[in-house]
Amino acid sequence: MLNKSLIEDVLSAALTTGGDFSEVFVEDRYTNNMKLQGGRLETNLSGRDFGVGIRVFKGLQSVYAFTNDFSQEGLIQAAKTAAQAIQGAPTDKTIVLPMEKQTLQTLHPIELLPNSVEKTRKLAVMRKANEIVTNYDPSIAQGIISVVDEEQNILVANSEGTFAEDKRVRSRMSIVAVASDGSDMQTGHYGPGAHQGFEFIENLDLNHYAKEAARIAVTMLNADPAPSGKFPVIIDNEFGGVIFHEACGHGLEASSVAKNNSVFANRVGEKVASDLVTYIDDGTLPNEWGSLNIDDEGEKTRKNTLIENGILKGYMIDKFNARRMNAESTGSGRRESYKFAPTSRMTNTYIAPGKSTPEEIIANTEHGIYAKYMGGGSVNTATGDYNFAINEAYLVKNGKIDKPLRGATLVGNGAKTIQKIDMVGNNLGHGAGMCGASSGSLPVNVGQPMVRVSEITVGGTEA
Amino acid sequence: MELTNFRDQLFAKGEKLGITDLEVYYEKQDSFSCKVFKGEVDGYESSSVRGVSVRGVYQDKMGYAYTEKLDEESVSFLLNSVQENAALMEEEPEELFEGNVDYQDYDFFSPALTDVSAEEKLALVKEIEAKILAYDERVVQVGYAALSDQSIEKAIFNNKGLALQDKNNFLYVIFSVTVKEGEEIKSGFSFKLTKDFATLNADEIAKEAVEKSLSQLGGKEYPNKKYPVIFQNFAASSLVATFVSSFSAEYVQKGQSQLKGKLGEKIASDHVTLSDNPFLPEGTQSGTFDSEGVPTREVTVVENGELKTYFHNLKTAKKDGVESTGHGYKSSYKGTIEVTPSNFYVVPTENKYEDLYSGLEEGIIITDLQGLHSGANPISGDFSLAANGFYVKDGKIAGPTNLMTIAGNFFDVLKDVEQVADDLEFSPGGGVGFIGSPSIKVKSLSVTVD
């Protein structure tokens, strides 16, 4: 993508003002974005992103510059601009990279590269999903189906001799069903994705995903307003894991831990969660949405156990925060694109399965809320306070799932909530999402089996 | 490759391939940002990025593609993508704007802002951070101390003769503060956006960020019920921003807006006037033409509660038989033409913020809202959001509440606005357009306190 001697020159130029580490990240990415709404193809866009990010460290100082001027002059100029921010003793280091790039045995085999597949073939799958959605029920007003895919080629080189390339291929289908009874509108959504080519889209079980999206919309149309107050809350598997992604995952990233800006900082070895909780981030799961061969700093991804049986074991760490924490990278340095300096981020994060069956958990709950599908949410990592929407909620009465509820939001504190998990199911599942933070918007999986929290505040419209 | 050369090659090769109408939209963004942590430089970033998007009509259908790499390979990639993407479209092609009209004469580029050195910017952030840390012993952390500036150049060329260029720049600072008393932790922030670096006052910014955070300490539980609610300016603007798509003709025509069929009707109380002004000197979205090249103008969308117009681009205007309001914007060269506001705000009145609660026996003031991207349905208007704020008793602020959730419907809120203050602020959040509001008082909303 850039020749080796130019990369070496840029790495060297970045160190001329006394920096102790320099890095070059090159990205060449092809993307396609198609959206079918109400049976019509509304968006059909192709693009090519290309650019270079240059990073310099000196101790705990970090500087980043990026450009898509890929001429020799443009890149050397960007490296020098970055170097200007480092006020150290001028040096004259020459960086020499290894002769050959690091070769990787991919953990995520790809069959059909997105740009090798005719768009008519993609559209055919989208139309099929739309048909299933619109035929589900007379109250379905329309389906909104999109397919987004990309081929991201990256190269990472640094002054410590890292010189590696990777190809990431991702495909995702998003199915939105809109149901209406004339006065009211409700939506249902399902968005499966993978680190895979078009084979993922073509092999999707549309009968499951499209029908679920439609069923959620129709169910919510006939739901009662959610009550407010404190309840035991049962959160189902797959995307249900989003709550612990926000409430705990972000607080376990070095970007907040290194600066003591997290309730989990300096607590390795302490009990931070209920005994039933084992929490893992694993970037190596084959072809999963959040998986990578190497992270965006060139480190191999791995399986990091964050919490084991309630005891805090470790954090997700990138190279820069590793300096502040006096620790090693855990292969967690990620960035949306060359436009972002990397930082510690999640990949596929999940609560490990427990022993209870979903049926047991519901049967053991006298009066509570069952969150079948979660929506999005956010967390203040400094305080751990979070908020989440429930996309499909039910009242649980006398150990049975009762009427559907709409407009339910969960608010609480992550550190407290994980101590209140009192049942963990055996049905681990993962769900695809996009996670936004300081290094941009990234594909991540959230996951868990069904879990029950003894008490969460539910904010509903029925005061 | 230079832009003019790239454009000429594209037009020439496009014509040979049978692409009739062809447009090049160019954007170049130069940015600088720095962050400080405990007196040290914690982040320092400079960038220069450009991109080109192309749309063209092939066999009576329009195709789109973009690139960030301006080379010959990309010329072929763009034209092939335009052809392939156009082939699948069923819609009538969008029309390219021929221009030949007058544009307002405004300049939104401040050369003085580009003269401020990186050292000066960094020094200001360090100064403010130090002042925050020294302000009160309950300050435990400055979570975020940052400055960012951007200079954005736009150009549009098409083979029907349109050739426009424009430039805008601005700078902003944002500070977030964490305070702690006993076991209670709270945070607050200060945000300032300007074109004049000299107006940034370190003492004022530090004071605002810390006072906002300290004022939240000592949160109490209050009964869950319906209260009169005052949204402070930042909270009100973030609420408006969440539901702004309802005013877009694109959403109206797709049946995704509750405002469909409501033109000329009262959709809000008499106190609500909503205006869109593309010529605000300090607006991040200010400009004299939109992304289709149509001249922009000031538009009153809601006047004393009555819905006067939707936002339009060329395509939605044609469909409704009206003129474009100059709101055909692209989020960047990566996007397609949408219908979005420029600088859109609730028009302030003479009322003081204090007037909004001084007459209340009991009420809730909301200082900030969270979960707007997940706890709100932009189509139905329903929201259930986490919020911080204060409890009002006998016309006075009695103290902060624990974390709350407030629930209701945006379109009901519009009708229930009883007072609007004079303290217009624009929301720092990203998203669509640059959205502002003064503090507003709403008759009643359902509040749950954690």
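Chain A has a mean pLDDT of 94.
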